Amino acid sequence: MNDENNILTKEFLPNHVAIIMDGNGRWAKKQGLMRVAGHESGTKSVKETVEYAAKWGIKFLTLYAFSTENWKRPKPEVDTLMNLLMNALKKELPTLQKNGIRLNAIGRLSQLPKKAYAQLQEVMTLTKSNSNMILTLALSYGAREELEQAVKNIAIKVKNNIISPDGIDQSTINNHLYTHNLPDVDLMIRTSGELRISNFLLWQAAYAELFFTPVLWPDFRKENLQEALVDYQKRERRFGKTSEQLT
Ligand code: IPE
Ligand code: IPE
Ligand code: MG
After folding, report:
1. Ligand 2: does its nearest atom lie under 6 Å from the Cβ of 20?
2. Separation of 85 CA from ligand 3 center, angstroms?
3. Directed axis angle between helix 222-233 and helix 35-55, to 10°?
């Protein structure tokens, strides 16, 4: 990272970074540990990533922590993940406050265990006036489910004559997503070498730059995030235009 071309600058940072934190299970297996040890170790990567992103002035960071599909995992693993979430929220509240980070959550939150849900609500309330960065946890989140909910809610409004079918446009859809208060994703990172989106922010990442790294989530450190950000800064985002039109 000491080559001049590989230096991160404050200019052209992504506004919204979203991360698919994957590879905890494989990390654990590699060291002959139980899968849950990988999840536990992954919480250190979360802390380091959040602090580094805040330090650089990233305004929106969204972390995929638990998908709608992850409910199909063995119950002991699901239970451990929910407990880890609760403990991390409790433990890291001072980190959020110190860095001026507001906690937000997206997903079908009512499916979370009551205690985890209450802890989440508490930390969201306590951090609600922080404005340096919005940290969004995607919990029991699935993009298809999010779109299903949005369509249902729009249909209800049409039925009740609150909006007309002709009045539905892209901003209507946006406004009915869990992410209605977040901007589009600029950079989406996935760890662990898998090359897929796994039902994460399908609508919001329509024009996101993608960055895949083989690094397993528990090994992900600030240098790895830096590498992704430097890579992002070298991209030309054309949004359908020609290169010449951009200058
Ligand atoms: C990511 O790691 C954490 C969650 C999906 C909750 P995994 O648990 O998916 O780890 P791998 O993919 O099995 O290695
Ligand atoms: C995606 O990882 C979900 C999270 C990181 C929370 P998975 O490990 O569940 O994804 P697949 O099943 O490999 O696509
Ligand atoms: Mg996985």
Report:
1. yes
2. 17
3. 50
Exposed/middle/buried for 243, CB within 10 Å: 0-12, 13-18, 19+? exposed
Mutate to test the pocket of ligand 2, among 24, 69, 85, 112 (most ligand atoms within 8 A of CB): 69
Residue ranges of domains in the chain:
10-141+184-235
This prediction's pTM: 0.97
Residue-wise pLDDT tens digits, 47-103: 999 999 999 999 999 999 999 999 999 999 999 999 999 999 999 999 999 999 999
CATH code for residues 10-141+184-235:
3.40.1180.10
- Residue identifier of the C-alpha nearest atom 14 of ligand 2: 198
